[in-house]
């Protein structure tokens, strides 16, 4: 009776088993250490503490002084950067934009500008005065939305340069007239004068991106 042919695949020799055993002996401690580190971090931290404790015990006093110095420097630097860069106002504007309120403010400003143009069609001087007051208010709102510091528009204008706003001098003059209108009910404004002031505000709105260039 003929023998069944033996499988022709590779055979596992004693040498192969020996090599596999050696590799396992080499890898198991590494794997075991990894699991100890991952699943028993307290032991690792305790060992690290025991290792570094003599060094910190000998040098603790000057390490504390160094930490205080660095903490003071970082705190001062943080406060200085925030104060100089309008960081908080800018972050607030980004947050409002995320919520959609920034776009709402811009939309509201555009609607107010349309209302200003309608007021100028009136024959009533009080409407012209209101148009100037509203234009000045819109400018202040734009600066606040852009992150410029200053509770009053006067404060903001003093921090600007002609590189940031080309008709800055005209805006300052228009704002002074606006203050006179607000504080003196008897102050007279002509329609042509009101149109000229609104032209100044309009130029600023265009440069600041509120209105399109015409």
Query: Fraction of residues in helices?
Result: over 70%
What is the count of distinct domains? 2
Assign the structural class, choosing from mainly alpha, mainly beta, alpha/beta, alpha+beta, or little secondary structure. mainly alpha
Total beta strands: 0
Q: What's the assembly state of these chains?
A: single chain
Radius of gyration: 37 Å
The total of helices stands at 8
Q: Flag low-confidence runs.
A: 1-12, 95-102
Task: Give a brief outline of the structure.
The chain is mainly α. It is built from eight helices and no strands.
Characterization of this structure:
The protein is built from 8 helices and no strands. It has 214 residues and is mostly helical. The longest helix has 45 residues, at 41-85. The radius of gyration is 37 Å and the shape is elongated.
How would the blueprint of this fold be written?
Blueprint: H1 14-39, H2 41-85, H3 87-99, H4 101-119, H5 125-145, H6 153-159, H7 168-183, H8 191-207
Helix pairs in contact: 1-2, 4-5, 5-7, 5-8, 7-8
Keywords:
214 residues, 2 domains, 8 helices, 77% helix
């Amino acid at each position: 009776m003929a023998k069944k042919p033996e499988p022709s695949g590779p055979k596992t020799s004693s040498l192969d088993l020996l090599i596999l055993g050696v590799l396992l002996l080499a890898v198991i401690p590494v794997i075991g250490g990894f699991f100890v580190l991952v699943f028993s971090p307290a032991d690792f931290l305790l060992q690290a503490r025991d290792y570094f404790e003599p060094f910190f015990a000998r040098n603790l006093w000057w390490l504390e002084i160094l930490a205080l110095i660095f903490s003071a420097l970082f705190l001062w630097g943080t406060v200085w950067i925030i104060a100089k860069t309008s960081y908080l106002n800018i972050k607030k504007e980004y947050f409002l934009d995320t919520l959609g309120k920034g776009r709402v403010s811009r939309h509201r400003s555009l609607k107010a500008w349309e209302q200003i143009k309608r007021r100028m069609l009136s024959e009533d001087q009080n409407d012209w005065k209101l148009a100037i007051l509203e234009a000045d208010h819109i400018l202040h709102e734009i600066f606040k939305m852009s992150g410029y510091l200053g509770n009053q528009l006067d404060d903001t204008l003093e921090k600007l340069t002609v590189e940031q706003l080309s008709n800055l001098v005209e805006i300052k003059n228009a704002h002074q007239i606006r203050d006179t209108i607000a504080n003196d009910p008897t102050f007279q404004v002509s329609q042509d004068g009101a149109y000229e002031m609104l032209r100044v505000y309009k130029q600023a709105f265009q440069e600041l991106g509120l209105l399109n260039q015409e």
